[in-house]
Amino acid sequence: xxxxxxxxxxxxxxxxxxxxxxxxxxxxxxxxxxxxxxxxxxxxxxxxxxxxxxxxxxxxxxxxxxxxxxxxxxxxxxxxxxxxxxxxxxxxxxxxxxxxxxxxxxxxxxxxxxxxxxxxxxxxxxxxxxxxxxxxxxxxxxxxxxxxxxxxxxxxxxxxxxxxxxxxxxxxxxxxxxxxxxxxxxxxxxxxxxxxxxxxxxxxxxxxxxxxxxxxxxxxxxxxxxxxxxxxxxxxxxxxxxxxxxxxxxxxxxxxxxxxxxxxxxxxxxxxxxxxxxxxxxxxxxxxxxxxxxxxxxxxxxxxxxxxxxxxxxxxxxxxxxxxxxxxxxxxxxxxxxxxxxxxxxxxxxxxxxxxxxxxxxxxxxxxxxxxxxxxxxxxxxxxxxxxxxxxxxxxxxxxxxxxxxxxxxxxxxxxxxxxxxxxxxxxxxxxxxxxxxxxxxxxxxxxxxxxxxxxxxxxxxxxxxxxxxxxxxxxxxxxxxxxxxxxxxxxxxxxxxxxxxxxxxxxxxxxxxxxxxxxxxxxxxxxxxxxxxxxxxxxx
Length: 541
Fold this sequence. Notes:
This protein has 541 residues and is of the alpha/beta class. Helices cover 34% and strands 19% of the residues. It has 18 helices and 24 strands. The two termini are 21 Å apart.
């Protein structure tokens, strides 16, 4: 592997532009991010996944390596993996096979400490709130109302509902509480959307920590805590630079989940890529109903960018899954199931087309794939009007994604420069915005609200937050809020059981179905398989 200063040179950066973290990773200083962003932005999204995931990160890494192979100056922009799922059931977020980031072990775990900084800032704010209440509660926090909870970057279902402050008179105020995973923290979303230090400070000050007995919202700015938060987060705000196994530049920064947050890397990382490279491949999490929808309606307006083209990742395994084949059988050849399951990726294709993006559909090849199944998939997708290619980046690296790179470059060069078509208007009511997403993107018949959720949405609008964007929290396995409804379900209804305000991030989070903001560990979690080998190298999977 090359040293990180050599990777930086490929983006015309020098040592003075970097904050070094050893020889293999660095942060890019804010004043070294160009304001002229001429690079073409390529959105990497996917069909609804099977439980095993379909390889968007592997595809993105393979594509950037292939683009550099064919003479294009390209970089990839990805989220930082959350440590919780690494030890849980998802595994790492640094790609796989010959299409990986380096150093994968550190990227998957502590990396440059960004997640730790967010956890520290979030919990400091919770401590400041509790301390304020302990010493007289001058701002009048109503401890019975929703408030600022705590976070940690570990999957632990026992922390979803807890009681704190049981240490007597000196132990704080007893109250019900919970922990969320750090990726679900509003500060994670703020770090991903902040356009610089001043914007970070402003957003942190708008964080709502609770309500008074009179129903007035109380913010972090009122606690005089923002300066300390900025100090904790200043370095974490800088985009991280690493490399792929083939030496392509990779910008890995911030890590909001796509099913409980907006699911893509930071605005600053995207700006750096578009200012320093000719092509930037940016991944948005899970299927286009989640990642791409939030990319278009939340990320692009915040960053002031638009993608030139999109790549829709599919696997034959996931296509069979969405034909209703049991998970234990989805690796087996079944051309009939492939034909039936195409309804899912074709629906995502139509969503991307409605957004106004030209699309390349790519099938991420797997060892068990047969010619009969592949032929059924390609024919069905082409009949739906898709441009279809395949790639084998997992086994062959960039060489296995050259056809994909050529297709993406050709599509991007031919694309027009029209505006994206948003799903809702800024002046729609919150319920109108939610309904637009549920009906236009998911295909729902209607949206139902719990009494509590409906009341909260009304309170948000009354408090002046009606112009907020919507960040839906929903299962990734279905267009609906029921993970068992695979394929392209029809006639279903979306159930919104809770609504949360992320004023600093600028969006409202409607929570549907059984979505949890603190995941649990699997029955046999990855943590039982992780260790050091005889040479002291970590074996993660």
